[in-house]
Every structure is written in C-alpha cells, then in structure tokens.
Amino acid sequence: MRLSSLFAVGLTFVAAAILCLVAAGFAVSAVEDSTEIGVRQSLDKAGHHWAEVEADGLRVILAGTAPDEATRFNAITVAGEVVDAARVIDEMHITPTEDLTPPRFSAEVLRNDSGISIIGLVPASTDRADLLDDLEDIAGTGKVADFLETADYPVPEGWADAMRFAMVALAELPRSKISVEAGQVEITAIADSREDKSALERKLTRAAPAGLRLGLEIAAPRPVITPFSLRYIIDEDGGRFDACSAETEAARDRILAAARAAGMSGTATCTIGLGVPSPNWARAAELSLSALSRLGAGSVTFADADITLVAAQGTNEGLFDEVVGELENDLPEVFALHAVLPAPADDGTGGPPEFTATRSPEGLVQLRGRLSDESLRRMAESYAQARFGSESVYTAARIVEDLPADWPVRVLSGLEALSKLANGAVTVLPDTVHLRGITHDEEAKAEIAGLLSDKLGEAEDFTLDITYVAPPEPEDKAPDPEECERRLSAAQQDGKITFEPGSATIAAASQDIMNRIADILTDCQELRLEIQGHTDSQGREEMNLNLSQARAQSVLNELRARRVLTSTYVAVGYGETRPIAPNDTEEGREANRRIEFRLIRIEPTAEEQSTLDAVAADTAPGDTETEEHGNTEPVMETGSQAEDMPAAREETE
Q1: Alpha carbon distance 250, 263 (integer Å)
Q2: CATH architecture of 106-219
Q3: Contact 394/362 with Cβ under 8 angstroms?
Q4: Which one of 3.30.1330.60, 2.40.50.140, 3.20.10.10, 3.30.160.150 gives the CATH number of domain 481-602?
Q5: Could you read off the pLDDT of 134-184 as tens digits, one per residue?
Q6: Which of these, 110, 117, 120, lies nearest to 145 by C-alpha position?
Q7: Rounded to an integer, what distance in angstroms lies between the CA atom of residue 576 and that of residue 558?
Q8: Would you say residue 121 has pLDDT above 90?
Q9: In the CATH hierarchy, which fold is given to the domain comprising 355-468?
Q10: Which of 208-222, 300-314, 605-619 tops mean pLDDT?
C-alpha cells in the first residue's frame, strides 16, 4: 500500500514537470514569434525588405545583404526600437562596392628662362627622384618646381613611352609647354627662327615612338627688322609700297588705311616684326603718306626714325614748302625729316653716266657701263664673284673720269641689292638706283628697301620693280600626309591584301598590291602610320583579335622587307570590334575582313581648360613674354582617315 502511494506521488511530479516544460516551450515560441513579427513589420515599414529576421530566445538575429553601410546601421536602429538593442545580433553583409574607375594620369611640363615646372597626376610607381634628376639636368641653372601628385593605380599602356618622349622634347625646347597623357603628347613651343622651327618639327617627329599620338604647335618669332623701313611711291601708275614694316597688326591696319587714302589700289601688306624705333611709328607713317598725297607724286622713305621725302620733278615750290613745313611740325618726337625738291630737268644733249648689272635665270651675271677707276672695277668684279660665283661673272665695264664721288658706294650697293633677287637687273644713275627683277623671298623687297636706304643715305632716290614668285617645289619633296592617304586609298581600290587560309601569311596574289603600297610609302618618307587589322564576327573574339594582330604585323614585316622606313609605323589588330558592314551576309563579312592604313593623329577632345592648365598658369617658375607671331602656323600630325574599304580576307573558324 505504501509503495503504491509513493509511486502515485512520483508520477504526479513527473507529469507536472512535463506539463511545465511544454507550457514553457509554448511560451518561448510565442515570445519569439511575436518578437520576430514585430521586428519584421518595423523593418518592412522602414523599407528594409532585404533584411531577414530570426528570433532565437531573447536574441534577434538580423541577416541579409544591405546596399550600403548606412542602410545596415539604420536596420539595426529600427530593430533596437522594437526590442532591447543588446538583444539584436548583426549578421548582415554589405553589397561589395565596384572598383573605382582609375584616374586619368596626365602631366604638364612648362619650361622657360627661369626654369621648369611640372604638375599633374602620375602613377605611384613612377620613379619621382629619377624624373626630377632628369628635369634638373635639362634646366641647368634654372629652378625645378615639382607639383606632382600620385595615385596607386596600374600604369596605363603608353604612359612610359609618352613620358620618355616628353623629356626628349623638353631638352630641345627651351620655351615650351608639353602635355602628357597615356599614348599622347601635345607640344606648344617657340623656336628661334623659321629654319629652327622646321628642323625641330622633323627631329621630334622622327624621335616619337611608333603609335604615339603627337601634336606639334611650334611658333617662329617675329623677325627683327633692321632698319625698320617703309617706302611708298606715287607716280603715273598710282600709289604703291616698295617696303612696309609695322610692329603690330593694329599699326599695320592704320598704315594700310593711310596708303589707300593716298591713292593705293590693289592689295598690300606690311611685315610685322621687332625693332620699331618709336611707338608712334604708325602715326608718323600716316602723316608722311598724307603729305606725299598732297604733293601728288614722289616717294617717302623711312629708315628707322629718319624720313626722306622726295617730291616729283616739277612740283610747285610753294606747295612743297607748305607741305614740308606742316609735316615737320606734326611729326612725333624722335623722327627727323629730310625733304628733297629735285632741280628742273637739264635740257643738255649728253646722256647721264650709267652702270648696269644683270643676273640671268641661269645665274650668269654681266657688269656693263661706267666705273670711275681701275680700283673700282677690280672691287666690283671681286664683289660680284664673291656674291654670284667666280665662274658666273662677266665684266665689260669701262673706266670714265668725272663720275660722282659716291659712285663706288652706289655701284656696290646696287650689286648687293641684285644678289637678293633670283634674276633681274640694277641700273645705277647719278640721281637714282633702279632695281627690277624676280625674287623667291616674300620679304626681299622690304629688305632691299632698307638696305638701299641705309647704304645710299637719306637724300638719295631709288626705285624698285620687284615681283615675288613662289619658289619651285624641289623635285624630291615628299607629298603631304593627305596626298599619301589618297594614294593609299587609290591603290587599295584596285586590289586587296589577302592571306593564306587560316594564317597570317600574305597570299602570293597580293604581292603586286604590296609593291605598290611600298612604293607609295617610300615616296611619303616620314609618315606616322597605323597598320590596322580587322576581321568579321565569325569565330571566337579572342581568336579574331590575335589573327588580326598577326596579319597587321605581317604587312608591317613585308614593308620592312621592301626597305620601307617603318620606324614611325605601328601594327595594331582590332579583331571584330570595328565592322564597316553587317556581318549577317557574306558580302558584309568580306568587307569587314580587311587591312587599313590610318594616319596617327591627336584625337580631338571637347574638354575645357583643365585644372592642370589653370594651376600651371599660376605656378610656372617664370613667365616668358611672347608676342603674337606673324606668319606662324601650328604644326600638328595630320590624320584624315582613309576611306573604309575591304583589303584583307580573314579566314576564321
């Protein structure tokens, strides 16, 4: 009886414990469910639908992938408003951020008389100390200002070649600005003369690595005009300039306007240069041209600040005195006027003494007429032989007494002036020197006017009848890039460069077209050229890219085998990325399988002045003052695209 009672009590306790456990489990589940539902509803209301909620007893576990760190933190905050924040367990992740776009590496180097400054963003792997050492070697005693920043990104293709070439160019250009980007260099510089400009352009073009896009803008400075001269004549043919100099475009326009008001017809120009004797040059010229116009005929000659006004023979003496008096009073300071009214013509029957020298188009020179003594004859002959060549001079002048005392100066000055012409004649008379002929130098007329004004003196008269004719093109002159492009285009229209099936070997049938292209490129000489290989879209993209590269290189090798200078050529394969026709027809695929010859050129950009430009303008170690340059043309690697046409058949799998 006692055992049964004990068993019943124990069984009761066990049943009670089981019921407690079951009740506790239900209570915990109810708490977890209510907690999870409450947190879920709060997160959804806050827009965090991506978040996953799991309740584990008193803990609330948040999972899922948040778009960013701020959103993840906000989800934790929302959950902490529903339950105790200490119960929130964060197991959320953040969406991986995309790789940042690499920066555009670029540098600008400025060089002038004060030194060199460099500014820009370069790869962190750049050997900065070595770069600064190179700049210090180039600058010599000048300062080097370093404003470079670095970024730890991979070095872009073409950056190293561009920087090396920039250092080469900088050493050649003491006044320059060089902009460097990956695969591209743009140069703006000033040369000492037109000859130096041409030489620098040739040298830098040769030195540029193949494939580098090179922009050249080298300006030649204004010439120094000595003496600063102007000569204007009014005769029966109207008004005209023998020489005209001006210091600025504005001064030139004022002088030409005054000349038109004085009766000049047709077009004329003034050489813009350095050496003006006074800032009032244009004003003095206006007054003098107006005075000559009032006289009706004659000439006015400027040699620096000395002005010679020669009236026509027979000019009214009263008018001459009035005009000269007003001009003397009105001329700006510094300028000195010498006015000449020729004596009336002599009715004597004897002709004036005369000396003539002629130069033929073949270069033969004859000296005829009168010379004052044997010493002058030997002097004139020796001078002519030195100027024109000892084998080209024939002397038939005779010695005559009682010639003017300045006859030797007039004769030698006339010979020197004749040497400036390609062919022509000079006639020396007691009261004038007349030079006529043809020149290939646009500035020769002004130079001769200045020469005769200086040699003959301010009171002497001379006339110039000089015609400018453009110099003949040298027979071996290379065609310009556009002409080369046209020739390559014409050659490819007559035939295609084809290859053996599935290989980069040029087919035997294409040897003739290769020979024609080689001949064209030999004539073109220095040409920056990209030989491009293209395929259709059949086959794997990587295979097409490799095949196009191999075939472009094969064409380059064939040109080298034909002794074409290819140091400025580069072979590039573009695969199927640049179709010129649809790839869904055989005709289109045939057109896309081709070889093209393209001129390497600077790609135009629409960017405004960069921050580098603005900062560089303020941080250059010194300013080189430059004036507007007349007659300068920017020199840039031209790159008109050749016509798209089929040129090579690609055999792809």
Answers
A1: 20
A2: 3-Layer(aba) Sandwich (3.40)
A3: no
A4: 3.30.1330.60
A5: 999 999 888 999 999 999 889 999 999 999 999 999 999 999 999 999 999
A6: 117
A7: 23
A8: yes
A9: hypothetical protein tt1634 (3.40.1520)
A10: 300-314
